[in-house]
Design brief:
- The protein is mainly α.
- The protein folds into two domains: 1-30; 36-63.
- It has helices spanning 4-29, 38-43, 47-61.
């Protein structure tokens, strides 16, 4: 059973993780279009192709 202190620490950690994820997402979205990610550089994919590929992979998990 979690006590109040553990619960507080857990909540703080979750908030930190959410903030980090949010900041990474902002950094990615504000990235200039000409600066491709590593996968896009190595596979010669456009950002849209990469996104569609990720979405289709995700969709197969729910089928």
């Amino acid at each position: 059973m979690l006590n109040a202190k553990d619960l507080l620490l857990h909540q703080q950690r979750q908030r930190e993780l959410q903030r980090e994820a949010h900041n990474e997402r902002l950094a990615r979205e504000s990235r200039p279009l000409w600066r491709a990610s590593k996968t896009e550089l190595t596979t010669n994919r456009t950002p849209m192709q990469t996104t569609m590929r990720k979405l289709s992979r995700l969709a197969t998990l729910f089928l």
